[in-house]
Amino acid sequence: MRAAVINLRCGGDIAANLDMAEHYIRAAHGDGAEFITTPENTLLMQPSSKKLFAAIKPEADTIGVTGFGALAKELEIDLLIGSMAIKLSDRQAANRSFLFGPDGKIKARYDKIHMFDVTISETETWKESANYQAGETPVLAEAGGFNIGMSICYDLRFANLYKYYARAGAHIMSIPSAFTAVTGKAHWRTLLRARAIETSSYILAPAQGGIHDGGRATWGRSMIIDPWGEVLAVLDHDEPGFICADLSMTKLLDTRARIPAWGQETPLADP
Known about the structure:
- The protein has helices spanning 14-30, 49-55, 63-75, 159-168, 181-199, 249-258, and strands at 2-7, 35-37, 78-87, 93-100, 106-111, 117-119, 125-127, 139-143, 146-150, 172-174, 202-205, 209-211, 217-219, 223-225, 231-234, 241-246.
- By secondary structure, the chain is of the alpha/beta class.
- The chain has a single domain (2-261), classed as Nitrilase/N-carbamoyl-D-aminoacid amidohydrolase (4-Layer Sandwich).
- The chain has a 6-stranded mixed β-sheet with strand order 5-4-3-2-1-16. It has a 6-stranded mixed β-sheet with strand order 8-9-10-11-14-15, covered by helices on one side. The chain has a two-stranded antiparallel ribbon with strand order 6-7.
- The model has no long low-confidence stretch (mean pLDDT 95).
């Protein structure tokens, strides 16, 4: 299966964000991609809580849901939108990833489980849980004969989620992200390769990159990594664009046969 990941630089204009995403989805499809993935916050990057909740809507009324479904159907592809903010109430949203099938219908939804509540430095603090309700359930989906473990951004730091997916039959880990520039530079590539090696799985990691509305800086560097931990393709910058790579089930199964650690674990007692 030929897969693509997309770098975006989204801001507070939903229409502009959707136009940019569509442009690169069409471009990746033109390069032969059958499975295309976009980053976290494809719908909107909005630092103001007030403006965020004024702009977003429930799932049934979200323009990105209907629009990306129609695009997947037109192009006859599996399309994973890394995440869109979906309004749950006046004060809470879901950070929700959607997988659309070639018929345009939603195959799977995943709500981000791990909230990005961190203090990166004296001047940079994030509390995602102030606006978003954490998901509770891992979601395994399918595209082109490959099983996909769905996750979003900060989930990347929690290896047990990916171990769960590998044991549940996942062949691909989807990790759409909007990593900060600081943490991305330090940890992005290392963590992605670690998850690939630990689970003997393909990693598809589309990313936001550059300076966004409000001055937020994200890392970019979208990647496709194989089950041996080799980087098959990388957009080594913050600019919008896409990359493609061909995924092989044979290569994945051969890797898992060589080092079956993805399926082995010694139970340990709590400390």
